[in-house]
Amino acid sequence: MTIAYVTYQDKGAYTSTTVEEEDEQLLTFLKLKGLVIETVIWNDPQVEWENYDLAILKSPWDYFDFIDDFYNWLEMLKANKIRLLNPVDIVKWNADKHYLQDIQSAGLKVTESVFITKDQKIDLNDYFEDFKADKFIIKPCVSGGSKNTFKVTKANVAELNLKIVSLLAQEDFIVQPFLAEIERDGEWSFLFFNGKFSHALLKKPKTGDFRVQHSFGGTIHSQVPPNNLLESTQQYVDLFAKDCLYARVDGAVINNKFVLMELELIEPFLFLNIEANSYHNYHQALLELVK
Fold first, then answer.
1. Domain 99-110+181-271 has CATH 3.30.470.20
2. Where are the domains of the chain?
3. Residue 200 has pLDDT above 70, yes or no
4. What is the pLDDT of residue 139?
C-alpha cells in the first residue's frame, strides 16, 4: 500500500517550527514502522494521484483559502477510489462551521452561535444585546488559523462594522459570545485516534490576547482529564467522527460542563509530543482502519 501524507505549500502564513517538527517526526515514525508513505502537497498539479492507494490528511493548512479547489480535490479522490483519512464526506461537512448546528441538533452542547449569510445587512452593535455581553467573536464559517477572526468590543465595533461589511461580500460568518473561561482557564483539546482517547491538554492565551494558538503566543499544558469531561467529549467523536483516523475536540468548561467550540477533523495540530504514547496510538489507529 502506497500512502500520500497530505500537506500544503508552505508560504509562512499558517505554520510554525513546532508544526513542522510534528509533521516530520510523525512521518519518520510511520516510515520506521514499515509504511510506504511520502509527503504530497494537496493542490500540486504535478502529483500523480493514481499512484496512491490511501491519503492521510495531515496539514493542508491553506485549504480554506482555496475552498472550491479543495472540494474539487476531495471529489477527485472519491472518483479515483483513493481512500482518504479522514473520510471525504466528513471532511466536506467539517469544512464549514454550519456543522455546529448538526451537533447541537443531536443534543450535544456547543458554543452559542449566530450565522450571518453572505451579503446580509447587519449591525454588530445588535449582538451585544443578543449575547447580553460586552464583547463577542466573529469569524468566517470557512476558516482556520484565526484568519479574519475578531474580538468585537464597544471600543472597536464601529471600525469592525466597516470591515465586516466588506468581508461579508465574500462569504458567510459566524458570531459567538466571548468566553471569559478561555481567558481565565484556557481551552481544552482532546485527541482521539480511531475513536479512542489518546491525550488531552489545555491551551492558554498570552496575557492580553484571546487566541490560544501557539503561533500567537499561547501556551500548552498536558492534562489528565476528569472522567466527566472524557465521557462528554467521547460523545462528539462517536456521533460525528466515525472511521476518522483522528479527531480533536476543542472546547471550554462552563459551569462544570464541557461546551464544544470546534470539532477539528481536517488539519488540526495533534500535540503528539506532549504524550509518550501518542505516536503509537496514531499508528495503531491507522493499522485498525486499513487492515
1. yes
2. 2-94, 99-110+181-271, 114-178
3. yes
4. 96
